[in-house]
Amino acid sequence: MDRETQTPTPSSGDHRKQGGGRGGWITFPFINGTLAGLTLAGFGWMSNLILYLIQEFNIKSIDAAQVSNIVNGGTSLFPILGAILADSFLGCFSVISIFSCISLLGTGFLALTATLDSLRPEPCNNGSALKYSICKAPSKLQFLVLYGGIALAAMGVGGTRFTLATMGANQFQSAQHQATFFNWNFFTQYTAAVVSSTAIVYIEDNVGWAWGFWICAAANFLALAIFLLGNRFYLHDKPQGSPFMSIARVPVAAFKKRNLILSSMTKDYCHNERNQPVDYVEAHHQYHVPKNSFRSKMSSVVPGNGETEAQISPDSARIQGGWTTFPFIAGTLMGSSIALSGWANNLIVYMIEKFHVRSIDATQTFNIAAASTSLLPVIAAILADSILGCYTVIWMSSLVAILGIILLSLTAMLEPLRPAPCQNGSSMCPIPSKVQFSVLYSGIALASIGVAGTRFTIAAMGANQFEESKDQRIFFNWFAVTLYTSMVLGATVIVYIEENVSWTLGYCLCFAVNVVGLAILLLGRRYYRHVKPQGSPFTRLAHVITATILKRKIPLSSRAEDYYYHKDGASEKGASMPTKSFS
Question: Which CATH fold would you assign to the domain 322-529?
């Protein structure tokens, strides 16, 4: 993006003195506070939506699950729209502000349906054999307020979900600071998701739906307030205009010039070295003749070296990392995301229809699985950074996920692994045996653990393939597009197959795409840049705490030359005096 302010000097330490001191780590509390509040609000109402529709609006379980699937698809599709609006027209700040207000309005409508008796139908005995014939259906007005609130809240969640991450990364110039920000961003997001999926869901189930939804609305309002309070500190990026105009020019120009004959003279072609201006290229005549092979075109320049094809030796051509790795990482992400969306989005319906599990128990199982996929990525990140490395964690987690999906597929394929069928809603349905429950829950557990291990460890691995912050930003943009496109495909195509063709075929497709994703990951191994694990962070943390305790009574020196400070990779002496404040 073109920035409104100048590029900061390295000595600024990413505090960005230009542009009125905007950007840098001073914006971190505002952006992460906003993320925490919006995540609490979003997961608070989405995690328990199916149960709310069944208990309070007398909606059939399969219809409630379909509504939930549409919501999940919408929150996976709207981030793409939010990204286009942010980059092309409005900017990140405006998009986040607008969609946060939309989310607040939708959450408010949901809270009103839980608070006012006139906005929901009369209660009936949930679980009765005559439930669907004696329970009163919601009126048109009640449906309008309910679905209007769900639509607005889902739209708001989608519009802010990862636009916040993009805006946060844009506050920093160095790739190292951006990587640190993304680590804390993911940690905040998953911590808030776990808290919301447990604490708020518990309040909704045991205290009252109104209390739970109003807490979500309060969290959303607080997040919006925090975000607006930080406006004077943010570094704002200028929108670049519609990307579709640039895309349209390419096929139009290619069509007009389709009959042109290519010249064989090198002087007729310009090759721009990495990060060199056009006048530099013209002065040094860095030209080369284009070839018909995609391989020759991609290998003509090694990312980061700025060397032409004639200057590259066979050994240097094997440099790892860069955009060569992107198809492998994106393919792996797509396979795991389609598989996750395919089995998770329809899990509640599967448990109710095939295992005769009560709707409230099926929803609680789903919430536990969702919370696990939000909590376990933190553990996976620690293992990747400290012991095993990203690549090893990803392929091991993919194997665990595949094993879990195999077990789920077997429950759908083999009749001995599920109870005998009965009419949905009947009180005479046979209960699953211990073996059947063991296979089912083992499959869910393994699939959830596998998803958590790959879900965003692959994002960290992808970012590690690039040294330039600009390349990392582009990677995360395409990462988000790939992730949400895959989630939409899983939530629509595979869910449709499960409901209208067969559960076995749907789960087998999840297995197949997950295996293909793992195969793509393994095929790209020789191209990846592997970052060595740094050892356990808890050891260093323990050293700091121990040293602090042991030296707690040592008097501080009043001489500046007795202290060191770290500045942009160099340690200097006599730089600063310690103070009694953290600032």
Answer: Growth Hormone; Chain: A; (1.20.1250)
